[in-house]
Each structure stands twice: as C-alpha cells, then as structure tokens.
Amino acid sequence: MTDSNAESRIVSASREIAAPAHEIFELIADPAQQSRWDGNDNLAEAPTGQRVSRAGEVFTMTLTTGAVRHNRVVEFEEGSRIAWLPAEPDRQPPGHLWRWEVEPMSEARSRVTHTYDWSQLSDPKRLERARATTTGKLMASLDNLARLAEEH
C-alpha cells in the first residue's frame, strides 16, 4: 500500500544525453567526479580511488557545508544503475536514497534518469533540505552531467 504522502517524496528527472552510456556511467560511479556535475549545490569533493563496482560498497563524500557523508551503495548494475543511502559517519542512514539509471538509446545517445527518494526519511532535521530537492535541481545535475559527457 502506498500513501500519497510517500509518493510526493519521490522526485525524478530524465533527459537524453548525446554520449555513450558507459561514459556517462563512469562520471556517476566515480565519486571524485560527482561534485563536477552536482546541480544541488551539495557536494564539495570526494577522495579519488573510490570508483563504485558493486552493491555494499561505501564511498565518502564531503559536502559544501564541510560535513562528511558515508554513502552505502544499495543498488548496482555496471553501466546502467547505481543507488546509495547517505549517512553521517558511523551512523545508520536516515532513509533518503539517490538513484541514477542510464539506458543506452544508441551507441552515442543515452537516457539518464536521476531520482531522489526520501519516502523513508526518518530525521526531522533533514526534511526542509529534502523538500528543497526539486525536479529542477535534479535536472540541473542532469544538465551538468550532459555538458561533461558531451565534451568527450
């Protein structure tokens, strides 16, 4: 059973990008690249050498506020899908999830979908920030990602 409140807490945006799926996925699966395309003004930097290769891995990211997040990868399919749950170090994830899906349309074009799901978010201090993560901010990330991927 899904309630309407939970449904309003899943935000998604999609667009076509003129680049091969594997090139786009490399930009997403390497946390060190993520601050280059973040349209949510949230990601500052991540150490190199953390390229995600399977579910269960954890990568570290520093936010623009200086806070550190450990991101547990909960979905992974090489070249097509990755999702993670961010959390403060040594804490359980509060229940919001970031997902990226890359679907090849041809050798040189791909459809990319970015989803922010905060339907399970349990930390009331994070609700305002979660509500501020709109389709427009997700689309800004997609547009930034497209610019980087299409440069190659």
UniProtKB/TrEMBL annotation:
Pfam families: Polyketide_cyc2. This is Polyketide cyclase.
